[in-house]
Amino acid sequence: MRPAPGQVLHFSEDPAIARFVPHVAATARQAEPYVWAVDSAHSPGYWFPRQCPRAMAWTGPGSSDADRDRIIGPGCGTRVHAVEYGWLERMRTVRLYAYRFDAAAFRPFGDDGASVVATEPVVPLGPAERVGDLFELHEEAGIGLRVLPNLWPFWDEVTRSSLGWSGIRLRTALPRPG
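RE: above sequence
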């Protein structure tokens, strides 16, 4: 589930949004209202239930072989995503949808280019598309999916490594182990 060239995606558990209006999310770090979306490279980070905490790591030009082997591990290709056991059932049962938009209505947000934003209302190119089996998406993309009792030890190792990394909804993760 990735956008076609010239498109970006917005993932949602609501299949009935006809028009997206910029707003300031309750968890936003900025005051400006936006409609958020992602490009093809960043779509896998959203193949999760909306509130699911996840930690992700991938190789990049400056990644060491030692960090790749230690964190991503054998058989996981160049990218791994991690979730907590408590989210497995929700990952199996969530009805996740993707909305396609013309990328021309969006601009990059931030220095890392992980997200794009629109500052005017936007209308999807068509109806919401069911994303499907989240485990199957990871498998087809060659992304390792790790299930952990707690994300924080993994996250601490990832953020100290030479790998690329991202964490989403970490505020909903279990507390750090004592």
